[in-house]
Amino acid sequence: MATQAKRPRVAGPEGGGGGGADPVAGFLSWCQQVGLELSPKVAVSRQGTVAGYGMVARESVQRGELLFAVPRAAILSQHTCSIGDLLERERGALQSQSGWVPLLLALLHELQAPASPWSPYFALWPELGRLEHPMFWPEEERRRLLQGTGVPEAVEKDLASIRSEYYSIVLPFMEAHPDLFSPKVHSLELYHQLVALVMAYSFQEPLEEEEDEKEPNSPLMVPAADILNHLANHNANLEYSADYLRMVATQPIPKGHEIFNTYGQMANWQLIHMYGFVEPYPDNTDDTADIQMVTVREAALQKAKVEAERLLLYERWDFLCKLEMVGEEGAFVIGREEVLTEEELTTTLKVLCMAAEEFREFKDQDGWGDDKREEEGSLTLKNIPKLKAPWKQLLRDSVLLTLQTYTTDLKSEQDLLSNKEVYTKLSWREQQALQVRYGQKMILHQLLEMTL
User: 3-class DSSP state for residue 22?
Assistant: First the structure.
């Protein structure tokens, strides 16, 4: 399986920052010192890029050409930083749900170290105080602009986790090593900013196929690789080997064009949550809309006329939970052309709509065998109009309930997007949030049309 970068560059309204008279010249000089080889066909630039610093083709590049190679020693990680030995010794005390604490401590230390060998690399980072992740938006603005998209809920979990991680793990570690850290300097605010930076800029080396059951690899900061901006329709990809990480062109890149990486299939709500930007509609071919699993349960309960019907629905739901088809915090994910959680949604519609006697038999058999499931057919978007009427009605009711969670309707958003004069007067955040909402609603309305 081809390896892919997972967390490259933030794109934002003012992306890129850093000090020094010419941070690019300083960075390129540093690259030579550490053996980071850039092809003469590429240039690090703020000109001709979609946001902040990026990489541009000086000459035409062919598919398969090497754009740059980063030696393992040039990667900034918990192992290569100047306090790597200490972090390794204290590894047990630094375990967390995110798995990011050792790298974050490495960054906290290196950023403040006067003679850090990584300083020329840091000079190309964006200003930490100007990151555009929704976690830095005022709560009221986040709620107002992104309600219904799933982003506010994801941010609230992040903020609670960051605060807990800082006070329970990071702060005690820093207090135990006052020669290296000062909580006044290495504050919760700075830690919060570095979490966002790692979220947006770091990479995680993919596990080998036989290691799929293991915990994900620790994040890495990969100089040069994190300069590339993102597109779903990217033209470069990061490949991992024992000694180097190589960025290779995946399609021809004409002279003067920007070089784009990808970090996998990311919907716009995920892009804005993790990276602080979106791809304008309809560019993000990986965009999705979610229908919360509990929303389907709510839609089914609306049809229950008596208590016995409600109890039977809850029994069906509990059985779906047992089958691991649904959960209280799960979502059915709908792409532009396919249902990404096809098995879960098919099973849920089937179980919630089946006759009582059929459900008893289904439950006694502990679900279907594979043969039976195959007979049901696949739940592609094209097949939705062919579904049984009760299935379509439940799906339709679920979509309508989902649309009610937004504060605006599709038409008002279409009007905003079609009026360039009005759209350009919106703030950066308003524009990005509008693109997230609009993309999701277009998918949901497409689903509505198919359930008529």
Answer: coil
The DSSP secondary-structure symbol of 66 reads: E
Strand order in the sheet with 66-71: 37-38, 66-71, 244-249, 236-240
Coil, strand or helix: which one is 18? coil
Q: Walk across the sheet containing 54-57 and list its strands.
A: 42-45, 54-57, 258-261, 229-230
Beta carbons within 8 Å of 48's beta carbon, 6+ residues apart: 54, 56, 256, 258
CB 445 within 8 A of CB 289: no
- CA-to-CA distance for 343 and 325, rounded, in angstroms? 8
pLDDT digits (tens, 9 = 90+) for 340-359: 999 999 999 999 999 999 99
The C-alpha atoms of residue 116 and residue 94 are separated, in whole angstroms, by 23
Whole-angstrom distance between the N-terminal and C-terminal Cα of the chain?
Answer: 40
Spatial CA neighbour of 300 closest among 402, 445, 398: 398
If you write DSSP's letter for every residue of 245-284 in order, what string do you get?
A: EEEEESS-B-TTPEEEE--SS--HHHHHHHHS--PPTTS-
Tell me the backbone φ, ψ of residue 42, rounded to 5 degrees: -125, 155
Tell the burial category of 117 from Cβ atoms under 10 Å away from its Cβ (0-12, 13-18, 19+).
middle
CA distances from 220 to 78, 226, 416 (A): 8, 10, 40
Is residue 238 within 8 Å of 247, Cβ to Cβ? yes
Rg, C-alpha atoms of the chain: 25
Q: Say how far apart CA 277 and CA 12 lie, in whole Å.
A: 6
pLDDT tens digits for range 55-112 = 999 999 999 999 999 999 999 999 999 999 999 999 999 999 999 999 999 999 999 9
Torsion angle in degrees (nearest 10) through CA of 226, 228, 234, 235: -110
- Cα–Cα distance, 440 to 282 (Å, whole number): 11
Q: Mean pLDDT in the chain?
A: 91
